[in-house]
Amino acid sequence: MADALSVIPSSVLRNLSDKLYEKRKNAALEVEGIVKQLAASGDHEKISAVISLLTTEFTYSPQANHRKGGLIGLAAATVGLTSEASQHLEQIVPPVLNSFSDQDSRVRYYACEALYNIAKVVRGDFIIFFNQIFDALCKLSADSAANVQSAAHLLDRLVKDIVTESDQFSIEEFIPLLRERMNVLNPFVRQFLVGWITVLDSVPDIDMLGFLPDFLDGLFNMLSDSSHEIRQQADSALSEFLQEIKNSPSVDYGRMAEILVQRAASPDEFTRLTAITWINEFVKLSGDQLVPYYADILGAILPCISDKEEKIRVVARETNEELRSIKGEPEEAFNVGAILSIARRQLDSEWEATRIEALHWISTLLDRHRSEVLCFLNDIFDTLLKALSDSSDEVVLLVLDIHACIAQDPPHFRQLVVFLVHNFQIDHSLLERRGPLIIRRLCVLLGAERVYRELSTILEEEADLDFACIMVQALNLILLTSSELSELRKLLKQSLANAAGKDLFVSLYASWSHSPMAIISLCLLAQMYQHASAVIQSLVEEDINVKFLVQLDKLVRLLETPIFAHLRLQLLEPGRYVWLLKALYGLLMLLPQQSAAFKILRTRLKTVPSYSFNGDQLKQASSGNLYSQILHDVSQITLDGDITHDNGNLQNEIDFGSRLQQFQQIQQQHRLLASKSPAQSQSRNNSTLLLKEVPKAEEPRQPPTSDTNGPPSRLSKKGPGQ
């Protein structure tokens, strides 16, 4: 201290702390001259004493003017030292950096000015203080005083120039400092950070791309800043890095993919678009490198497919297709279970497009990795069943495709049908809304006969009789009306001539017995007319309820559709098809006379000719009366229940007596159930509305007032010989 006082006159020291800037400036010039003389003589000990004096007595003084004078004095001493200043930087720089946090804005301003002048002199030698200087500048960039911000910006530009020229700058030491500050929200600090990232990335010798994962999230965070300028700067920096990634042979895609996945779910639209664009490029560029991250990437893509912004939807769809085209293998860290889990979660999405793509992924995995997918079947099966209730037809059809693929194995087929019936049982609205679509599609995918046989087997053992009745009525309506089941109907029509048809008829009979109208429909379709008549004759008062009449109305209207064209044509030979006529008249007798169905069926029966067209001859009925001819033909019926010249060679193989008894026993169970809980049964009956509208037959405009061709009340007192 004494050495310094002996070198610097007291007047200079006094002026250095003066409140007037000009006096402090002149005093600083004198300090510069003194230090220059000491440096020329090589007296570095006294130089150190001068610097120590300026630091202790001035920069750390409680008086603001003293601190200002100390800062300008340190800068002057550095200028005086010129090329020898580097050996005194350890003394000069710390007090200046300390002044950056001074409470007085003017002191902070002079600190910026002082460090600027010091940096101009020492240039690259002060790189050893870069981290401290960067930290200080980061704080000053958000300073409350405008003049301090302006001074800090000037200093910042100079430091950037020095760093870009220096070969001593350590990017490894700098990155942790940058990473710590990337999530700061202050807009001035954000501009400062983006500026440094851009500058350092422009230096060829600095590999900023290698450290991109350390600050990538921060850059994406800035894309949603309220300042347009900051968003633009961040986007520009990201675009530059993406271009570098495209041109770089070695990139750490994995760490960045994790960040992009998070940002793809950002509430900010621009951030989502940028993130999904990066993911798109990564999928194209990295290929197999991203295999371990497929599940996470898929979890980011699928929601974006339904984004409200079209640009995001387009990029997401393209990325999804690119990802699906890459055929990963489990041995390559391709996690089938993780991808299935993501797809399963997305099936709960409120957006249809996302649910559809999730199903496409499950289907793709089944196609490529069937055995692995089946290992996780228990994890996804319930969700897939729940998806059958989806509001979208396309979703339901895709789910059915997946179920059909799974059900290629017999155990899984049985499980599917059992679960399906169970879901219909606990959710009747599903049966009403989706039942026909589900059953028809499964018949196409898995075979109508296979599906119906399995359903029949399950319903035959169903303990809930009301549900069994509802389900059978639904299946029967689908069987009679769906184009997808035309081959099954064709097979049933051949039941009297084809062993396969007969076997199918028998397999359906037990479960169809839960519904009188279903069993009658089945008999009419299979041309088992005598048995149909016997079933009708066996009905008792309790069977003729509202539900029965609704079903009968549907059947009458169905008889007028092309499906039963063969039956209507058989009416041209009333002598040959006596039991058909008796069955139809039996149905007519059960209908209320004022109902539309009664009028439709009566009109049809009136068109039955009074003679038979049997090819070679016309057999004219006596006195033109059809019914005397029918009575005549009945006398020719053989013990097997058909006319001698009818094609019924397989009918003998069916024990119709046992079948009728089986039907009556099942119906008796229904009657007992109805008598025990009439209110519940009535409620269930009211819920079984039409699952599908049946095409209405055209009603006659002016029906005749009398029926001259009406049949006798009973064609035969003797019951059917079955």
TrEMBL record:
<dbReference type="InterPro" id="IPR021841">
    <property type="entry name" value="VAC14_Fig4p-bd"/>
</dbReference>
<dbReference type="InterPro" id="IPR026825">
    <property type="entry name" value="Vac14"/>
</dbReference>
<feature type="compositionally biased region" description="Polar residues">
    <location>
        <begin position="677"/>
        <end position="689"/>
    </location>
</feature>
<feature type="domain" description="Vacuolar protein 14 C-terminal Fig4-binding">
    <location>
        <begin position="429"/>
        <end position="608"/>
    </location>
</feature>
<dbReference type="InterPro" id="IPR021133">
    <property type="entry name" value="HEAT_type_2"/>
</dbReference>
<dbReference type="InterPro" id="IPR011989">
    <property type="entry name" value="ARM-like"/>
</dbReference>
<dbReference type="GO" id="GO:0006661">
    <property type="term" value="P:phosphatidylinositol biosynthetic process"/>
</dbReference>
<dbReference type="Pfam" id="PF12755">
    <property type="entry name" value="Vac14_Fab1_bd"/>
</dbReference>
<dbReference type="Pfam" id="PF11916">
    <property type="entry name" value="Vac14_Fig4_bd"/>
</dbReference>
<protein>
    <recommendedName>
        <fullName>Vacuolar protein 14 C-terminal Fig4-binding domain-containing protein</fullName>
    </recommendedName>
</protein>
<keyword id="KW-0472">Membrane</keyword>
<comment type="similarity">
    <text>Belongs to the VAC14 family.</text>
</comment>
<dbReference type="InterPro" id="IPR016024">
    <property type="entry name" value="ARM-type_fold"/>
</dbReference>
<dbReference type="GO" id="GO:0010008">
    <property type="term" value="C:endosome membrane"/>
</dbReference>
<dbReference type="Pfam" id="PF24987">
    <property type="entry name" value="HEAT_EF3_N"/>
</dbReference>
<feature type="region of interest" description="Disordered">
    <location>
        <begin position="672"/>
        <end position="722"/>
    </location>
</feature>
<keyword id="KW-0677">Repeat</keyword>
<dbReference type="GO" id="GO:0070772">
    <property type="term" value="C:PAS complex"/>
</dbReference>
<feature type="repeat" description="HEAT">
    <location>
        <begin position="92"/>
        <end position="127"/>
    </location>
</feature>
